[in-house]
Amino acid sequence: AGVKPDDVEMIIVCTVTGDTPTPSCASFVQAQLGARNAFAFDVGAACAGSLYGLSIADQFIRSGKVKRALVIGAETLSRFVDWTNRETCVLFGDAAGAILLGASEEEGRGVLAASLRTDGSMTGILGIYGGGSRRPPSAEMLEEKAGKIKMRGREVYKVATRLLPEVVGETLEAAGLTAADVDHVIAHQANKRIIESAMQNLGVPFEKCWINIDRYGNTSSASMPITLDEANRAGKLKKGDVIAMMAIGAGMTWGGAVLRW
User: Fold this and answer.
1) Which among 47, 184, 191, 209 is annotated as catalytic?
2) The pTM is what?
3) Is 218 a catalytic residue?
4) Buried b (16+ CB within 10 A) or exposed e, 53-88
5) Which among 44, 41, 48, 91 has a CA at the least distance from the CA of 70?
6) Mean pLDDT, 10 residues at a time, over the chain (261 residues)?
7) What is the DSSP track for 41-99?
8) Which domains does the chain have, with CATH numbers?
9) Active site residue: 14, 25, 184, 188, which one?
């Protein structure tokens, strides 16, 4: 991107598998990058983290508070899977990706609209329920594998396939666009069937969606930056293209964003 570390004014690290409870993962990243002028913090919105981070950074830039922001999605989910549970251990991967955002003089480019949603009544269908202050690490917790990912897959599928097309549709409407205007979809790589169903319900051909879950698995908050980067490196994204983004994760937290490349 041709940007020096000192030019970055904000760093957001989206993760639920940070190295330590505190300091934040973003503090370590800021120090290692040498981004002395940046304030830094973590966002813990699970698989929707990078979408939340993108929206937060966009608002800071639009308000004039910062000119450049670095949004990072990074996870080491292999530390939190139960390797004896084939329903979950084969799904998740470790990865990191980043998006650098900056102010643009061109009207109608960048983030056109974003919608973020949370429904805390669904906290029980996906999460890591041990290891925090509510249930600190203990021999009993380890024995019960309470610090490992728990997921009720069928419920997650039903919720995701309903909420994702709904929120993307609302975001497109906010941007003054329709599904027919979408050139590409960058979706959180949770499950190919979820993506296929969401695309069908949204009314966008599946061929417009970049897929890499077969290579990396579900990498949570790292998923969307990686997917966007791969599509860009492959030469798929052209100036002026409309990109719809969608993600859903534990919480449940979900959202959509519409960008013009």
Assistant:
1) 47
2) 0.94
3) yes
4) bbbbbbebbeeeebebbbbbbbbbbeebbeeeeeeb
5) 41
6) 94 97 97 98 97 98 96 97 88 96 89 98 94 90 90 95 97 97 96 95 95 95 97 96 97 97 95
7) EEE--GGGHHHHHHHHHHHHHHTTS-SEEEEEEEEEGGGGS-TT-TTTTTTB-EEEEEE
8) 5-107 (3.40.47.10), 111-260 (3.40.47.10)
9) 188
